[in-house]
Amino acid sequence: MNAGKRIDIRCDGNKRIASGHIKRCLTLARAFADEGASVRILVADEESASLAKDQGFPVVVLNTYYRSPDREISALTKEISEHDTDFLLIDSYFVTREYLQKLRDVIKTGYIDDLHSFVYPVDILLQYSSTGQPAERASGLASRCLVGTEYAPIRKEFSDPANRMPVRDEVKKILVTTGGSDTNHMAFRITQGFIDMGASAFRDIELNVVVGRLSDDLPILEALAKRDPRIRIHHDVRDMPALMTASDLALTAGGTTAFELCAVGVPSAMFVYGDDQAR
């Protein structure tokens, strides 16, 4: 049990790496807090902090560079020591084995692994999207390894039976969700393609496009929606389960959103946005 424990979560999010790391860490933070733990979010810079603020948890800015975690070890260990932290959860694609080992020497650690890059020296290793031998090779130094989709960090509302949708025979509403930053402009490309196909192809179809907080394409997507009444733009969505269950089909980037769509039962077509999503 986590009652009375002090848990720090080290994660980042920005236009380059999107917001997925912070979002799934906030889900875990809520779960820890529900068990009575005191939780903080530790980030490298103010851009990451802007994604984590207003979520009910203290946010600590380390003033470091997210791509060079080895350089932050001194500042990070000082912070967790002064706070008397009991457990540190890390979510970053840029960590090294040396980074994890140095932190494990001073505190119990956990790591969320999508890449299977090396053998991770941590106390708990979470590999919810892992399959087969890569997970086994990567988990060699972990005291405990949580492998499999049953460990996917999705929010409670997505597993609520009330949000389970029936599969409908006819597609009338299509949901498009492409991640927090959408650096490849997939939402725009899909929406423009929808328009280019002509009204006859999707005359009675409603296209609901979710635009992430970090996306630069909101103005152009809103302009497209003004020209075509079939298109609806949703920005900074607060009730994603409701939007999902109102949809008959989803077009989505891989990642945690894919697990959320599965949890509520929405048929989906997915595309790969990063190497970690291919498996």
Short structural description:
The chain is α/β, with parallel strands linked by helices and 279 residues long. It has helices at 20-34, 46-52, 73-83, 97-104, 133-138, 186-196, 218-227, 240-245, 256-264; strands at 6-11, 38-43, 59-61, 87-91, 108-112, 124-127, 144-147, 173-177, 206-211, 231-235, 249-253, 268-271.
What percentage of amino acids are in beta strands? 15-25%
N/C terminus separation = 33 Å
Q: Which overall shape is indicated by the principal axes computed on the Cα atoms?
A: elongated
| Number of distinct helices | 9
Report the strand count.
Answer: 12
- Element order, helices and strands? EHEHEHEHEEHEEHEHEHEHE
What structural class do you assign from the helix and strand content? alpha/beta
Main pleated sheet: 7 strands, parallel
Please tell me how large the radius of gyration is.
20 Å
| Strand line-up across the major sheet | 3-2-1-4-5-6-7
Task: Return residue spans where pLDDT drops below 50 for at least 5 consecutive residues.
Answer: none
Overall pLDDT score: 90
- Which percent bin holds the helix content? 25-40%
